[in-house]
Amino acid sequence: MHRLLLPAALSVTAVLLTGCGAGDDWSVARPMPSAVGRVDLGFIDPSDPPAPEATVTPSPGSWSAVRPAEGTRVVLLTAGDDRPTRTLVSAVREWAEGEGVDLRTVTAADDTDLLPAVTRATDLHPDLVISAGEDLIDPLATVTANHLGQQFLVVGAELAEPTENVTAADWTGASFRGEGLGASSAYDAASFTPARCAAAVRAGTAAVLTGNTGIVLWMDDYA
Predict the structure, then answer these.
(1) By three-state DSSP, how is residue 44 classified?
(2) DSSP 8-state symbol, 174
(3) Are 30 and 127 within 8 A, CB to CB?
(4) Confidence band (pLDDT; 50, 70, 90) for 10?
(5) For position 33, what pLDDT does the model report?
């Protein structure tokens, strides 16, 4: 079950990570990623905590005060070169650069490399794996349940049955759940705007950093 932090406990002390940055040793896994700041009450209703796999609609900007601790290690896992995927990738990179995140990228070369790419990402022992690209959903469904100690954020899609370590930031027009499962809304490439993708990355990372994992954040309020 995901861990819901109540408002009084949402303030998270910054953790200064020794030796973080581009030269950090990624060979050893670390505990849950840490955050600086707290989410507002409109992010998740503490009087009605979401169940695992639930979909919640955070108030716009309710995540804006949350930042990753300096040197947080993130792997951007990506596949495909379509415009929606490129927009998601740009949003992740801009977030990482702006927040001082230690970012590495793992790109699937082709369809046969999808599952190996997910494995390469987890083998790096990052604090968080952020996935961008619909082709990765089925491989993620295979891998994530066997790596419960690794946090994943899926942006612009979702897993049909996510485990507690998989959080998604999704919206109408971007809710692919895997081959044969369809989507909870019709796919619309135009819905992948820079503003919505950026908001989804920030809201999704805020959820993971504050321990609100295993849920779907619905991001329809951004154009």
Answers:
(1) coil
(2) B
(3) yes
(4) very low
(5) 66
Q: Look up tokens 């998601």; give the residue.
A: 88
pLDDT digits over 165-194, tens only? Answer: 999 999 999 977 776 655 556 789 999 999
Spatial strand order in the sheet of 73-78:
55-56, 216-218, 166-170, 152-155, 128-132, 73-78, 102-107
3-class SS of residue 188: coil
CA 92 to centroid of chain Cα atoms = 9
Which domains can be identified in the chain, with CATH numbers? Answer: 54-218 (3.40.50.2300)
What does the block give as tokens for 65?
A: 């005060």
pLDDT one-digit tens code per residue, 95-110:
999 999 999 999 999 9
Instruction: Identify residue 121 by its one-letter amino acid code.
Output: A
d(CA 155, CA 132): 6
Tokens encoding 5: 């932090």
Strand partners, 56: 217
DSSP symbols for 52-90: TT-EE-PPTTTTTT-EEPTT-EEEEEE---SHHHHHHHH
Which H/E stretch holds residue 218? Answer: strand 216-218
* Three-state DSSP class for residue 28: coil
Give the Cα separation of 29 and 45 in Å (integer).
32
Instruction: Single out the residue of 73, 94, 75, 92 nearest to residue 30, CA to CA.
Output: 73
Which residues lie below 8 Å from residue 119, measured CB to CB, with a gap of 6+?
143
